[in-house]
């Protein structure tokens, strides 16, 4: 007995989702068809709607429905500081701190040679053009402190410095409320290296 | 800054998938929009297509494009034996053994009080009607040997026995090639209890 073809097509299609293998794709398809047809229909519409109505912001590269995202269009922010993050979620996280009043650039990814993501797949030219608008003075690299995020930051630092821009990196160190006893050695070592004079 | 609404709608919609929480929904949405728009579009179509063209087989309850699935429509199978499985994948697995030539009934789930799945959510009436067609002699319960699958089998055994049907359960025991040294105690104990005379 063959699996009916619309079902196997759905199972195959679900595998485009990151982290979803054949087993979970099958489980998802069964769940949607048997238990949540309304949710499945909503998902189909949300996908189609997002694909037609979202694009990358012309300035900061995040997802937006308009030419410019709300943040790029917002007046009264510091145009001299450009904070570079990996994903829109990082931008939101940064905004929640209320500690940064400059502009952003969202890479929509990170260098990850193992996953086949090289400099060409990240919007580096767009960042370069953005950073060289004549107003930006400092580029603050706020990629994650993962291997990929660090590699991306190093690469970008080289690239941007050759264009005569001031480049900085957010600090590593102990978290607020962090105790020396419970922090890992490399974070502690880094916190020591990056100590500030008081 | 708010997340643009088609994006947050997509993230919400992805959460209908089993095992997908807010974080992975976000990661999936970004991935689809940034790296695989073709895949996303295919997924939207596959969902819509599966929803319109698939239904439950009138006899065995599995997914099919027609009134009866291929297996129920197939001639030359033993109509006296009815094998009850949880999901279509279990049916396929059973067919691969080439050891069963009877008919199937697919529950499309299992009793799982913790997930709010009670007898009403599983198609027990449909199974009862199917098993009482006057031809079926034996119902072979082939639900999983998980807590839920076992509970489902016990419940069904009671229900079907009161209808005067012969009910059996597939055997527990050591796997083919299994070594006593490496099998868990409860499986070994069960294999002892369910020993066959030679």
What does this structure look like?
Two copies of one chain form a homodimer. Chain A is α/β, with parallel strands linked by helices and 198 residues long. Chain A has eight helices and six strands; from the N terminus they run αααββαβαβαβαβα. Chain A has helices at residues 5-14, 22-35, 37-53, 70-73, 88-96, 124-131, 147-161, 185-193, and strands spanning 55-56, 63-64, 78-85, 102-106, 138-141, 166-169. In chain A, strands 4-3-5-6 form a four-stranded parallel beta sheet. Chain A has a two-stranded antiparallel ribbon with strand order 1-2. In chain A, a hairpin with a 6-residue loop joins strand 1 and strand 2. In chain A, helix 2 crosses helix 3. Chain A is globular and about 65 Å long. The termini of chain A are far apart.
Question: Secondary structure elements and their pairing?
Answer:
The structure is a homodimer of 198-residue chains.
Chain A: H1 5-14, H2 22-35, H3 37-53, E1 55-56, E2 63-64, H4 70-73, E3 78-85, H5 88-96, E4 102-106, H6 124-131, E5 138-141, H7 147-161, E6 166-169, H8 185-193
Parallel strand pairs in A: 3-4, 3-5, 5-6
Antiparallel strand pairs in A: 1-2
Gyration radius from CA atoms of chain A, angstroms: 21 Å
Helix and strand element order of chain A: HHHEEHEHEHEHEH
Low-pLDDT stretches of chain A:
none
| Helical/strand content category of chain A | alpha/beta
What characteristic shape of chain A results from the CA principal axes?
globular
Report the strand count of chain A. Answer: 6
Q: Percent of residues of chain A in helical segments? A: 40-55%
Major β-sheet of chain A, in short? 4 strands, parallel
Tell me the strand percentage band of chain A.
Answer: 5-15%
Largest interface: A-B, 59 and 59 residues
Q: Tell me the distance between the termini of chain A.
A: 75 Å
Mean pLDDT of chain A: 88
How many helices of chain A? 8
Major beta sheet, strand line-up of chain A = 4-3-5-6
- Multimeric status of the protein: homodimer
């Amino acid at each position: 007995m063959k699996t009916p073809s619309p079902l196997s097509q759905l199972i195959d299609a679900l595998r485009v989702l990151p982290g979803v293998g054949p087993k979970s794709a099958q489980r998802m398809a069964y769940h949607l068809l048997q238990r949540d047809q309304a949710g499945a229909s909503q998902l189909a519409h949300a996908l189609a709607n997002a694909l037609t109505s979202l694009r990358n912001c012309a300035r900061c590269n995040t997802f937006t429905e308009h030419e410019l995202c709300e943040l790029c269009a917002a007046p009264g922010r510091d145009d001299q500081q450009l904070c570079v993050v990996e994903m829109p979620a990082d931008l939101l996280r940064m905004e929640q701190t209320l500690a940064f009043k400059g502009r952003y650039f969202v890479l929509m990814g990170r260098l990850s040679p193992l996953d086949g993501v090289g400099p060409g797949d990240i919007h580096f030219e767009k960042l370069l053009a953005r950073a060289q608008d004549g107003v930006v003075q400092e580029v603050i690299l706020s990629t994650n402190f993962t291997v990929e995020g660090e590699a991306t930051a190093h690469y970008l630092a080289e690239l941007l410095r050759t264009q005569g821009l001031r480049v900085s990196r957010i600090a590593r160190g102990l978290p607020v409320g962090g105790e020396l006893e419970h922090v890992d050695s490399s974070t502690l070592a880094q916190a020591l290296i990056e100590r500030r004079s008081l």
